[in-house]
Amino acid sequence: MDKYKKLVSNTAILSVGTLASKVLVYLLLPLYTNCLSPNEYSTADLISQTANLLLPILAAGMVDGIFRFAIDSSDNPAEHKKVFCISTFIIILGSLVAFATIPLLDMSGFFEGYSWLIPLYVIASNFHCSAAHFLRGSGKTKLFSLQGIISTAITIILNVIFLVVFDMGVAGYVLSVIIADALMTVFLYIKEKLWRYLTPHNFEGTLAEKMLKYSIPMIPTTIFWWITNVADRYMIRYFDGGHINGLYAVAFKVPTLLILVSGIFSEAWQYSAVTDGDGEDGQRFFSKVFDSFQSVIFLVSSGLILFAKLFTKILLADTYAEAWKYMPILIAATVFSSLVTFMSSVYVKHKKSMNSFITAMIGAISNIALNLLLIPKFSAQGAAIATLACYVIVYVIRAIDTQRYEKFSTKPLTMLLNSLVIAFQCVTMLLEVRYWILCGIASVILLALVNGQALISSAKKVFESVFSRFVKKKS
């Protein structure tokens, strides 16, 4: 029971920080879509996504590695300091290289004179993320959650100032993120006195080699996932222009709500998978958690699909009205993206980064091939279908492959039924068949019935965890 308590507790703490942050961002979507045209939003989005591509390359994958090694070294203060020192040193080296990318970025023609923002974004984000994930791996979940709220609040305040007051457009949108990351890095270094770890004697070659051996395969893995998630936006812009790409980029905002739910849980789950997932009891732990996770993800996705049109009307400016058409397929794709992320926890636990690399490569290759085939024929909808297809492929491969390391139940029949219900809901909504709203409501109800046992079990675990903490405080 302690395993479930820890998982629920960490998930709850991360939920407070992440939900507060993301809710604020969604409330400002009307601001963003009114201040930025679809073409400008497309440019700002491509700047952010290109920076996300460069992040792991210029950090040698250390942002992922620092979390995993921080967990292992949390009981060894001397080695713990070395983990942070080594990762920071490598990020410093990558930062020196970052500005050399500007000429290449200018040559691409995608960034309309804003290429200089990308290296700033990369440097600020890598330093912020390395410090934040080091603290998360150290078990300081509350601080990790709090700094996320503060970072988002700063970003939003700067967005209002730069977009509304100074009308800085694309530059203002991106600079808000850069400045927020830089300020949060300073905050974490001062709060936790992290500068004390940055001494020459804390750099150990043997440990650096181990960290790089784990982290370097994560670079192509991250690149492949970037290709899967983002390459279609460059293709859409090439084939159909900035306006359609802007609609598609905004359409991703609703599926991001599902990523939010799964992301909060995944951050807590990875820690539990490593620390509490051993032995036969650990396998039962994996099975129960996965069953609950996929049940919640499918049910939430069905609700998001049902309200996609309403979200579009409430959150977006009129010029983005057609964005809803891409949401159902993208939400379905995000379901399988979340399931793929769950499977990656097995690789994280057993340090099988090469398996992550190979499966991510398969996803990227299939995504590019399908994008080239479908976008010229079906425009942005073809990109959404390609994204869904590649995530389904990777999920099936990982569901089979991870059984070599963790023998847990993936409930394939339940998964198939859930998938068919979501497919039915997407088709009826996109074709706008008669009574499609009733079909959507029926889909939500059916998913609740199919997954009722897992959902009740999850609610029971949460209640028991909260109740035991309450009783403990009272006593």
Structure description:
The chain has 475 residues and is mostly helical. The chain folds into 2 domains: 36-216, no CATH class; 222-475, no CATH class. It is 84% helix and 0% strand. It is built from 20 helices and no strands. Helix 1 runs antiparallel to helix 13 (253-276) and helix 14 (279-306) packs antiparallel against helix 16. The model has no long low-confidence stretch (mean pLDDT 85).
Helices, strands, pairings?
Blueprint: H1 2-27, H2 29-35, H3 38-58, H4 62-72, H5 77-98, H6 102-108, H7 117-137, H8 141-165, H9 169-192, H10 205-215, H11 218-240, H12 242-251, H13 253-276, H14 279-306, H15 308-315, H16 327-349, H17 353-401, H18 412-430, H19 436-450, H20 452-474
Concise description?
By secondary structure, this protein is mostly helical. It has 20 helices and no strands.
